[in-house]
Amino acid sequence: MSSYTETDAYDNLFLHTDGSKRGEWSPNSWRQHPIKQQPEYQDEKELEKTLQQVRSLPPLVHPKEIESLKAQLAAVCRGERFLLQGGDCAERFLDCNQQAIEGKFKIMLQMSLIIIWQSRIPVVRIGRLAGQFAKPRSSPNEVINGVTYPSFKGDNVNSFDLSHREPDPNRLLLAYFHSSAALNYLRAMIAGGVANLHDAPTWKLDSIYDDNIRRNYEDCIDKILEGLSFLSAISADQGESLKSVDLFTSHEGLLLNYEEALTKSANGGFMNLGAHFLWIGDRTRQIDGAHIEYFRGIANPVGLKVGPSITVDELVELVKVLNPKAEPGKLTLITRYGRDKVSKFLPEHIRAVKKTGIPVIWVCDPCHGNTEVTKQGIKTRDFEKITSELLQSFEIHTREKSRLGGVHLELTGEDVTECTGGSPQLQDHHLSEAYETFCDPRLNYTQSLDIAFAIAKQLSGGRTPGFQRRASSAVRRISRDFDVGLNNSQEQQK
């Protein structure tokens, strides 16, 4: 970042903690506030040159896509849809390839298909992809073999290679182009019919080794195909809704100079056109901080990570600041407490937010609070603890007369060995077999399907009579959900 310090920011602070008197917002008003988790670039002129290049490039997403997502999230807020958000902890430039992108796309499709079929509830899909490169770190430095190095903060900041750990502004431009390439291929897959329900049997990735998971998934596919066969017999299967799908993109809005460069005037306000959805991490949610200042002004739907360190008063104030107009679908609260803490903090947080009268979407992130280190020093997550936090969250929301509207997962479509447990029955000694992440461990392909079946089981017992009346058959529900891919992409091509 620049030489602007936190002391300077406080001297000029116009953001009041009572939420009642805030200065005029602009895409760069965040610069007047204290900021955390930003890289310190050695060459400010080179940084500004790179940011100017990013500003001059076309947007990565369209305002109509963002409005479409916001409308779907409003439906989640009303209890009519379920949000599935997932992807890498931090994307790597080297994973911007056909196999990796297809793997992420297909696992999101398969998970949503399981949830839709068994629960009869449409799913909103948001990938942690096409921009999830930056990673906040607990320390700016790390010691490796007795030598101190700058911490790896993501491919858009520095390299995992120890010889290239200094922040490089040119990586911001590389992040833009890698995001663009990933988005381009996602759109091409959707336009090419990869999401066609008639081709559902080909979505399998040849790595389901557990017999129960394989049988459950194949049974799900068989029943869908039976329904499609009936539609075909009566010539009712020709619509585009069976051939396409929505998949939105998201990332943590961490590097604010980059996010500012992607912020454009649109629809009478300002939108970040680098992603459809952005969230604020647990380390950058300070009420007087730069990230809250930036996020309060963009029209995108936004998320806020909520951990055990946040107080009730802080949470209430943040909800008021980030959703001042009380718009359904605008604000998603992504809770990440850990298995042993969710029962302590979630109930009081639900009650406090309820009292504000502001609608929010409650989403469970059962991964981040359950990270641990093995005796061998390998960072991992226990699938049983992940599942426990998720199931506890469902139960607590029901008890508090609230609703868990979605799940936020770190996962991959690859057959990695980074999290223990699940139907693959991975143990600590298996982790070294295919441990590929540069940051946090991810659920692998089969573990992700395990989670999808667990979610579907919870949702299938919680449908409201009103929702059941709105859709008379499972096939019609799925047909409606698999609508025009990536929001007007064909219209844009025209």
Average predicted confidence as pLDDT: 85
> Which residue ranges are poorly predicted, with pLDDT under 50 across at least 5 consecutive positions?
1-20, 462-494
The radius of gyration computed from the alpha-carbon positions, rounded to a whole number of angstroms, is 22 Å
- Let me know the number of strands: 15
Q: Can you write the helix and strand succession as a string?
A: HHHEHEEEHHEHEEEHEHEHEEEHEEHHHH
Number of helices: 15
Q: Tell me, what's the shape?
A: globular
Cross-sheet strand order for the largest sheet: 1-2-5-8-9-10-11-14
Essential attributes:
3-stranded mixed β-sheet; disordered C terminus; single chain; 8-stranded parallel β-barrel; alpha/beta; 494 residues
What do you see in this structure?
With 494 residues, this protein is of the alpha/beta class. The chain is 39% helix and 14% strand. The protein has helices at residues 6-11, 44-56, 63-77, 98-119, 170-191, 211-233, 256-261, 290-295, 312-322, 342-356, 383-399, 445-460, 465-470, 474-481, 489-493; strands at residues 82-87, 123-128, 141-144, 147-150, 248-252, 263-266, 269-272, 277-280, 302-306, 331-335, 361-364, 371-373, 379-382, 404-410, 419-420. Strand 8, helix 8 and strand 9 form a beta-alpha-beta unit. The radius of gyration is 22 Å and the shape is globular. It starts with 5 loop residues before the first helix and ends with a helix. The model is unreliable at 1-20 and 462-494 (pLDDT under 50).
